[in-house]
Write a structure and sequence with these properties.
Blueprint lengths: L8 H8 L4 H27 L9 H28 E4 L4 E4 L9 H19 L9 H23 L6 H29 L5 H26 L15 H36 L6
Antiparallel strand pairs: 1-2
Helix pairs in contact: 2-3, 2-8, 3-4, 3-8, 4-5, 4-8, 5-6, 6-7, 7-8
Bound molecules: retinal.
Length: 279
């Protein structure tokens, strides 16, 4: 009898039902896609840095920081998957290996601890705030961003073993998330004032992207219980495991890469208007 304790639901599924070839490979591939995109985009942010005027370049620098940290942590996350589950040729499925590591999404959470404040600061270097104070927004972003991730990190340990704690930490994290959404809305609406029309439209797109992409993370947190609460729910199985990793990858590409590209576009439009010429 194996006891998994606070392990996340991927391990419980891998112990009892195991994963089909398709499910196992889809996760391995989507995790690999994740870190490959981060490395490729790293080059984009370096190579486009000079297309914006020097005062906006910090935004690209922050994207570079985000790409490097995400690349490394997603790489480790992908290795964690392949070292946790082992093919059983008699059953034709992948199961939690006897002496294997347990799988845990904690690498991601710690990656967000770096990336969330960076992504939030990043926009402050591209827009000009008209009423709010830069340092006040920056500090609130930093505080609520870190608190949101740390509380969620604690909560995810209880997703199988203690639903009450899992819901409690998740709810606490959501309060910080709402604070971030309110701040971001304010930053974007102030940022739209007095900038070229195309840059205003791009900022509008950034707000929608931000809302959708960032909401995917709490969706992934809730994933095992979205199809019915507890181990009998339909997503407490292979579909939920695969669904969660796909959700994370889409969210990561949207919130880090596409967001960074859109901010570069806003910065380029503002640079042009201010007379900056790339040489
Ligand atoms: C958690 C816990 C459950 C409640 C909420 C959460 C929100 C997480 C978010 C994460 C964003 C991460 C990003 C990473 C980019 O690198 C922690 C899952 C609300 C919004 C943007």
């Amino acid at each position: 009898m194996k006891i998994l304790g606070n392990a996340t639901f991927e391990n419980y599924v891998g112990l009892e039902q195991g994963f089909s070839e398709m499910g196992y490979q889809m996760v391995a591939h989507v995790l690999t896609l994740g870190y490959a995109v981060m490395l490729a985009s790293l080059f984009y942010f370096i190579l486009t840095m000079k297309t914006v005027s020097p005062k906006y370049r910090i935004s690209s620098v922050l994207s570079v920081v985000v790409m490097v940290s995400a690349f490394l942590l997603l790489y480790v996350q992908a290795q964690n998957w392949t070292s946790s589950f082992v093919f059983d040729a008699e059953k034709g499925r992948y199961f939690l290996g006897d002496d294997a590591d347990l799988f845990n999404n904690g690498y991601r959470y710690l990656n967000w601890l770096i990336d969330v404040p960076m992504l939030l600061f990043q926009i402050l270097f591209v827009v000009s705030l008209t009423r709010s104070k830069f340092s006040s927004i920056r500090n609130q972003f930093w505080f609520s961003g870190s608190a949101m991730i740390i509380t969620g990190y604690i909560g995810q340990y209880f997703e199988v073993t203690n639903f009450g704690w899992y819901a409690f930490w998740g709810a606490l994290s959501t309060i910080f998330f709402i604070h971030i959404l309110i701040l971001m809305r304010r930053v974007i609406s102030e940022g739209k004032e007095g900038i070229p029309a195309d840059a205003q439209r791009t900022l509008g797109t950034i707000w929608i992207l931000f809302l959708v992409a960032w909401m995917l993370y709490p969706g992934a947190y809730l994933m095992p219980h979205l199809g019915g609460i507890g181990p009998d729910g339909i997503l407490f199985g292979e579909a939920g495991v695969v669904g969660r990793q796909i959700t994370y990858t889409i969210a990561d590409v949207a919130s880090k890469v596409i967001y960074g590209v859109l901010l570069t576009i806003v910065a380029r439009s503002r640079s042009k208007e201010e007379g900056y010429q790339e040489n």
